[in-house]
């Protein structure tokens, strides 16, 4: 007996954002199919790290009127990205039958657009981090934050390169999606949450 959880969704409904997708049944999965996506993601992560380390930090890269400073712009944008990533996770679980009795047609649209916006709102954050701070390791928190930033974009690039493949091992995309989600949460914990708890929760 089959169920929705055992049957991969159509291409149009497949999770395409930072968190999903979850296991899909594909004939003849081959681990070497991951080689190009993984190498591409590693290359991007290394390039970001090297640039961040070699670039001379500036003063201010991104600021928005109404906020008390660039740090709070970055903190709130990262918070929005994490909330959208949670939407990604919940919608993916629903689409693959892990939660809920069925998946309404609008869930796949919600999933796709929440993923797109989650990545989009991180762009000003990474620009600010790379330009104003670079890759730093002044403290364990700062080091973890810098590594998580490189890992987030590296894992995201790996996922985008892997999504078109139909010969991946079933566990590949869930692991990659999990890395993207974990890296984003680590970014939030080491920057936004730290800022909110040390300097106050405000704009």
Explain what you see.
By secondary structure, this protein is an all-alpha fold. It has one domain. Helices cover 62% and strands 0% of the residues. The protein has five helices and no strands. Helix 1 runs antiparallel to helix 4 (140-162).
What portion of the residues fall into strands of 2 or more residues? under 5%
Describe the global form: globular
* Total domain units: 1
Give the N-terminus to C-terminus distance in angstroms.
53 Å
**What class would the helix/strand composition place it in?**
mainly alpha
Q: How do the helices and strands follow one another from N- to C-terminus?
A: HHHHH
Unreliable sequence segments: 1-15, 22-27
* Percentage of residues assigned to helices: 55-70%
Write the layout of secondary structure elements.
Layout (H helix, E strand, L loop, with lengths): L34 H20 L15 H26 L9 H29 L6 H23 L9 H28 L4
Helix pairs in contact: 1-4, 2-3, 2-5, 4-5
Please supply descriptive tags for the structure shown above:
5 helices, single chain, 62% helix, 203 residues, disordered N terminus, mainly alpha
């Amino acid at each position: 007996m089959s169920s929705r959880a055992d049957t991969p969704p159509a291409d149009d409904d497949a999770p395409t954002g930072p968190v999903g997708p979850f296991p899909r049944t594909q004939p003849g999965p081959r681990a070497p199919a991951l080689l190009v996506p993984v190498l591409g993601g590693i290359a991007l992560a290394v390039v970001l790290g090297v640039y961040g380390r070699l670039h001379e930090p500036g003063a201010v890269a991104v600021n928005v009127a109404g906020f008390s400073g660039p740090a709070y712009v970055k903190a709130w944008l990262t918070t929005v990205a994490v909330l959208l990533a949670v939407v990604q996770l919940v919608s993916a679980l629903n689409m693959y039958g892990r939660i809920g009795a069925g998946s309404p047609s609008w869930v796949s649209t919600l999933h796709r657009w929440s993923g797109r916006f989650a990545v989009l709102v991180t762009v000003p954050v990474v620009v600010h981090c790379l330009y104003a701070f670079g890759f730093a390791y002044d403290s364990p928190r700062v080091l973890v934050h810098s590594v998580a930033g490189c890992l987030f974009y590296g894992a995201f690039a790996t996922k985008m390169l892997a999504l078109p493949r139909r010969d991946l091992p079933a566990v590949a995309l869930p692991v990659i999606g999990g890395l993207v989600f974990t890296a984003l949460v680590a970014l939030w914990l080491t920057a936004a949450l730290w800022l909110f708890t040390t300097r106050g929760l405000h704009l």
